[in-house]
Structures are given as C-alpha cells and as structure tokens.
Write a structure and sequence with these properties.
By secondary structure, this protein is α+β, with helices and mostly antiparallel strands. The protein is built from 6 helices and 7 strands; from the N terminus they run E-E-H-H-E-H-H-H-H-E-E-E-E. It has a 3-stranded antiparallel β-sheet, with no helix packed on it. Strands 1-2 form a two-stranded antiparallel sheet. A two-stranded antiparallel sheet has the order 4-7.
Length: about 240
Amino acid sequence: LKHNSEPSLCTCFAMAALVEINDHAVGVPACLVGKPLEPFLAGFLEGGFRQEIRSFVEGNAASFLVVCTDGSYPLAWTDLHREYRELFDRQLTSVVQEEGFSREDFREYCEELRQAAAGLDAEAPLPGASGVRVAEFWDFVRSLTASEDFDRFLSIMFGAAALLHNHTLHAGGVNEFPVGQQQSPQEVEVQVTVPAGVASGEPMAVEYLGHQFHLLVPEGCIPGSTFRALLALPAGVPAAA
C-alpha cells in the first residue's frame, strides 16, 4: 500500500513481521513507526514467534518445488497460506491482549486512525496518535496485514524452496538453509505435465520457483503425458515472485 492509500482494516489483522532464517530476512521489513504503535509490531518480533514462523517456512519449503502450468498452482498452497495466516492471527490476539486491548477494541482503534489519516499528507501528524506521522501509520497497516497477501507468501516460500533445492544439490541433502548466498546460473531437471489444448511441438509456459520458462512440447507427447525438461535457473536464486 502506498502511504497516501486508504487500506481497509476490516480484514484479519495478521502481520507479516521480520522473520529470519540464518540471519537473513524472509518476510516484510520492519517498518519505522511512532511509539504508540511500536508495542504491536514488537510483539511479532519475539524470538519464540520468529522461530515458529521459521519452522513453518522451512518445514513446508519442499511443497513449493513444483512446476506449474497455465498459471495454476496446487490447492495445497492455499491451505498452507491459511495455516500461515493463522499463526499471525493467534500472535495478534496475544499481542493486543498484552497491551490491554480486545481484538474488537484494537480493530476500532485502528479504524479510527485510518479515518483520521484519510486524505492527509504523508508527513502530517496523525490525529489521535501522538508522535506518529500519517506515512508511518500506512507503513504500520501494510506490515500488519502483509500475511494476508498470497503473492508475498509465495515469494517467501519460493525463496525457502530455492534454498532447499540449492543446498540439497550442493551439500548432499543436509537440511540447512545457507540463506543469502548468491548462486551461479544452474540447470535443474523437472517433470512437466502437458496441459490440455497443447500438442507436441507447440510452445508452453511453466513457472518454477516464481520464474516463468518457455518450453516446446516434445514430439509424441499428448495432453496429460509428462516429459523431463531442463530449466536454467537465473543467478541470485532464491527467486522472488
């Protein structure tokens, strides 16, 4: 969301905070907000919660080493995103209760701030929140609701999946995540299913780890059959969706 936008706060107030995997951030950057809002963000940076998110991301990374065709993706990804949102939702409940709010109180408080910020200049002080600028409030809202963003979730999971792939390839399958290493371009062999309406010799597009690749269907392949293909992963994997 841009600072001068007016996002709705009627949805779940799950927040994608700064989550680390081996000292590398996977998630949204922590935003800089005024002191009245800091305790809510700080609650999502607690070590126990960060470890819970780290375990979820690492534990499910292999599910995203999947070749997708026709812009589709596995239904399991939607289920995992729901589980991911629920982690943040539970943490939100804990955080607002620690600050003496009910969830409804917090929702109403944020809605009042949203209405106060609507139409104001980004650098203007936010009425009802001493020391907070309007720009800082929109930044807070963006962080607070980021776990609802499916594309952002995919970006996180594709990054973890790419790291899992790279380390399995280069370190004999040890399940560690050397996050932040820059990889050279490399080829990976994948199995591709020919979608309906595509015949042998025709082009088709697939997505893998958030990148799109264009392939030619081999001779003799029909819709529903599979073939092996080499995909040249770009430098700098992990990929961002």
